[in-house]
Amino acid sequence: MKTDKLLSVISVIALAIGILASVIFACSFDLSFYEKEYAKGNTAESIGMDEEGLFDATEALLDYLNDKRDDIVVEADFNGDVREVFNERETLHMVDVRDLYRNAKKVTVLLLSIGAVILVYLHMKHRNLSVLRDLYRFGFKYGMTIIACAVLALGAMALYDFNSFWTKFHQIFFDNDLWLLNPNTSVMINMFPSFFFFDLVMKIIVVFLLIIAVISFILFIPIGRHS
């Protein structure tokens, strides 16, 4: 039984990380979020682009990450001057970002699969619903304690000093300095200033915690005599 309890914790951790990654993907590709952030920062006007060009550039980036296009070559009107939006450094950085995204998707599928396989194994081994419920509750209690502490710690770091948090993120996941963009020459960094990523990180954390809260409610709600 101790082994099964450990497996239940592992399954919860794997599924939780998989769900968190899925939330990151969903929030990162939500065009309505970009629309709100652009309006908040008056982004188009601050860059000197028209609204249509700004959204064309945004969709080009997202489609590139999703392998729906082979490049991020897109033109826009900058105060009457029509030219390409992204420079060579930005283009090279997006190659790294797409590789990171592809690998993240593979890891997400792997983690969700591991979690699901363990749950199926436990379900096949323990036909008693009361025993299964106790196992799932145990795994959720301890697995989510670990994940929640990690997520809240990251959230606290981001709230305390987001620039340092964001720098550490890039230093961990990228092996070059292409992510260091010059705001005087880079459209991309002006499209996505620090407040954009701060709001994105906070939204991801809130959505993830809400999902976990719903799962917790469903799992721990009393059901008959077996709760």
Form type: elongated
In what range is the share of β-strand residues?
under 5%
Q: Name the helix and strand elements from N-terminus to C-terminus, one letter apiece.
A: HHHHEEHHHHH
Mean pLDDT comes to 90
Structural class: mainly alpha
Number of strands: 2
List keywords for this structure.
4% strand, mainly alpha, 76% helix, two-stranded antiparallel sheet
How are the secondary structure elements laid out?
Layout: H1 2-28, H2 31-41, H3 43-47, H4 51-65, E1 75-78, E2 81-84, H5 88-125, H6 129-160, H7 162-173, H8 187-191, H9 194-220
Antiparallel strand pairs: 1-2
Helix pairs in contact: 1-5, 1-6, 1-9, 6-7, 6-9
Short structural description:
The protein is 76% helix and 4% strand. With 227 residues, it is mainly α. α1 packs antiparallel against α5, α1 packs antiparallel against α9 and α6 packs across α7.
Describe this structure in words.
With 227 residues, the protein is mostly helical. It has one domain. A hairpin with a 2-residue loop joins strand 1 and strand 2. Helix 1 packs antiparallel against helix 5. The longest helix has 38 residues. The protein is elongated and about 70 Å long. The two termini are 19 Å apart.
